[in-house]
Amino acid sequence: MSKIAGRGATANATSRRFNLPEREADGDWLDQQQCVDGLQPKPRTTVGIITPRKIITYNQSPDIGFDRSINPFAGCEHGCIYCFARPTHAFHDLSPGLDFESRLFAKPDAAALLRAELATPSYRVERIALGTNTDPYQPIEGEWRITRAVIEVLAESRHPLTITTKSDRVARDVDLLGDMGRSGLAAVVLSVTSLDPGTARTLEPRAPHPRRRLAAIRRLSDAGVPTFVSLAPVIPAINDHEMEDILAAAAEAGAIGAFFLPVRLPHEVAPLFRAWLEAHHPDRAAKVMGIIQSLRGGRDNDPDFHTRMKGQGPWADLLRTRFTIARRKAGLAGAGIMLRTDLFRPPEKHGQLRLL
Predict the structure, then answer these.
(1) What is the mean pLDDT of the chain?
(2) Which residues fall within 8 angstroms of residue 129, CB to CB, at 6 or more apart?
(3) Confidence (pTM)
(4) What separation in angstroms does the CA of 280 have from each of 23, 191, 225?
(5) What is the pLDDT of residues 204-239, one digit of tens each?
(6) Structural domain boundaries of the chain?
């Protein structure tokens, strides 16, 4: 498999679950020019519109610490090769490969839908998680500002939220998050998988530099926002050797807690990840997959509740032991996030100002 500059996937993988055909280049003049020049066509980012009827998604997963989430976008331009959300793009009749990171969708009605849902008399408040499927601060947020609009509604209604992101763009909303954080209503998780720019550039080609993420931890922490660091995923023989350094750097930047997850390769992610290994690390591809399979009961992926988030076997035990020792040495707490729910006040349905 050949590398594609600025992209994580090396191809548009077929979705066998939905009989999705192999995707090809659009065939426009830019593609033709690149073919004449002997280059593989570079997919350009496009953004479509999704208009859902509701914006809050509920889950009943017993190994996830929240029961509701909001995803302002579908697809993610960060292009992280390991992203467990890639298979969801097949529901749009698009490939979990290059399409996932170049053919994006925005939900511009998200804030209005959220306002209506929170104003429903039957609504019962629990924290809402942003960024559980795709990153709410991926590059297109700079133009669309959907995530900020959602946070504005949550701030107005004093509703608890957590944010998970790989982007320092989250610090741009510190004016909202600072007040919410100091009130016990918000916490942010910054994902830092490597401190090495080269590793980060291939694993997460369009995500911000790791040092910028650490700077965002500092800015949020200084503003009173409880900020955590996520080592997700830890990939054996790719970034696991950085575990201790990442935790120490995050603690120095002001993080108060940390957690990690071993790499998960559900559905189409496994062949995409294998192709990435062959393109970027052919010398250790077999070793990496061998260790991953030992973590996953002999399979590329373990979909079972509880074990899917932890792994199993000697390698899983070793990673947990290393992480626990390094976390305690850095003075970081665990992943428990406690937020207030008693301050909630339903928003006005159409955004009118309150009289009292």
Answers:
(1) 91
(2) 66, 68, 69, 70, 161, 162, 163, 164
(3) 0.90
(4) 22, 22, 37
(5) 999 999 999 999 999 999 999 999 999 999 999 999
(6) 47-330
Pairing of strands 161-165, 128-130: parallel
Give the residue among 128, 133, 144, 87 at the shortest CA–CA distance from 268.
87
Give burial (CB, 10 Å; 0-12/13-18/19+) of 66: middle
Query: Is the pLDDT score of 190 beyond 50?
Result: yes
Contacts 24+ apart (CB under 8 A), 297-305: 300/265, 300/270, 301/264, 301/265, 301/266, 301/267, 301/269, 301/270, 302/264, 303/266, 305/61, 305/62, 305/63
Q: Which span out of 13-27, 40-54, 154-168 was modeled with the highest average pLDDT?
A: 154-168
d(CA 344, CA 126): 10
Q: How confident is the model at residue 352 (pLDDT cuts 50, 70, 90)?
A: low
Contact in structure between 107 and 146 (CB atoms under 8 Å): yes
Cis previous bond, 226, omega within 30: no
- The label of the residue with tokens 């002001």 reads 254
Q: Give yes or no for residue 351 having a pLDDT over 60.
A: no
Q: Name the token pair of 241.
A: 């050797």
Q: Please state, in angstroms and rounded to a whole number, the distance separating the CA atoms of residues 335 and 42.
A: 39
Has domain 47-330 been given CATH number 3.80.30.30?
yes
